[in-house]
Amino acid sequence: MSADQNEIDPAKKWTVRQDKGGYFRKGGPYHRGQIDAANGRPRSPHYFHESAKITQVNMTKEQRDQYQAGFTDFQADQSEGRRA
Q: What residue ranges do the domains of the chain occupy?
């Protein structure tokens, strides 16, 4: 794996277009973190793969980190006034 597939660059926000490893896709860990934050839900790492919900106990550290980054990035964007 290349670095951009398994590391989150703290200097920039990730987007689905920058994803080369599949984790930032719709329903992936980063996206689910953003959605949970946007809907006011507590942090609860998970993502969906082929309609199956993958929970924290079955996620890799990378996937848990990506979920956390999505959640945190959304909150930071909110506090900076970037999202309604």
A: 16-79
